[in-house]
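About this split. The held-out portion is used to measure sequence recovery: a designer receives only the structure tokens and must propose an amino acid at every position. Recovery is the fraction of positions where the proposal matches the reference. Here is one held-out target exactly as it appears in the evaluation file.
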């Protein structure tokens, strides 16, 4: 109805001019959105490249079990906390080793066996704590574990050898991963018979860097998810 009224008032030429203006405004709007970082997904190509590398672990993480008793819950927790502190200090004392521990689980309950046997009231409660202890590797990792844990823990499980964040600069791997992503994007553009435009965005991600030590090395892979503009070959 609005177009009919417009035609009656101003004539057909006004409608044509208005349509042309709307089209140019839309095109200008697309350019404005692109300048602000907004892109039509149908005009983008996204690929993921990777760059693997074998590296030597410089950190070991073990799960250890500590146990303690006390006359009440608070006494048990206090005893376990003291054991945790002693364990960390022992790890830090090995060649100025950096070490940290996180509590995984804590269980404190009444010592029923002690109650049935009418035992010592100072052992009325018993507790267990599972800790994740991380240490920098210095020399033989097994010798390190033995020296730190001997006489201080009830058991060891889930040993992991890792590469810490401070071990080297991964800028070169990022460059390789991005180059791999660009290569894949170019291959995809060729299949679609279009040209690959400029890089719009890239995100990097490193895989979990863990190993059971095995041959003394673990795999570190950097992945780059890159997004490129796409354009027709005639649009040079």
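Reference sequence for scoring:
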């Amino acid at each position: 109805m609005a177009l009919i009224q417009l035609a009656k008032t101003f004539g057909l030429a006004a409608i044509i001019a208005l349509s042309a203006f709307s089209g140019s405004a839309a095109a200008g709007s697309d350019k404005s959105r692109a300048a602000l970082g907004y892109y039509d997904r149908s005009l983008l190509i996204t690929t993921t490249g990777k760059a693997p590398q074998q590296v030597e672990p410089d950190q070991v993480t073990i799960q250890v079990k500590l146990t303690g008793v006390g006359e009440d819950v608070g006494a048990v927790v206090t005893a376990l906390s003291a054991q945790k502190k002693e364990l960390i200090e022992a790890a830090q004392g090995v060649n100025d080793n950096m070490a940290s521990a996180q509590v995984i689980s804590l269980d404190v309950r009444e010592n029923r066996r002690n109650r049935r046997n009418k035992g010592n009231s100072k052992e009325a409660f018993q507790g267990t704590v599972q800790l994740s202890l991380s240490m920098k590797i210095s020399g033989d990792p097994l010798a390190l574990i033995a020296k730190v844990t001997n006489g201080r823990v009830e058991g060891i499980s889930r040993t992991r050898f890792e590469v810490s964040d401070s071990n080297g600069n991964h800028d070169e791997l990022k460059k390789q991963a991005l180059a791999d992503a660009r290569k894949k994007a170019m291959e995809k553009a060729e299949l679609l018979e279009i040209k690959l435009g400029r890089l719009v965005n890239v995100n990097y991600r490193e895989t979990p860097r863990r190993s059971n030590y095995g041959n003394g090395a673990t795999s570190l892979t950097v992945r780059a998810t890159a997004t490129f503009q796409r354009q027709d070959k005639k649009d040079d």
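Annotator remark: The helical segments are 2-10, 12-35, 73-92, 112-116, 141-149, 171-191.
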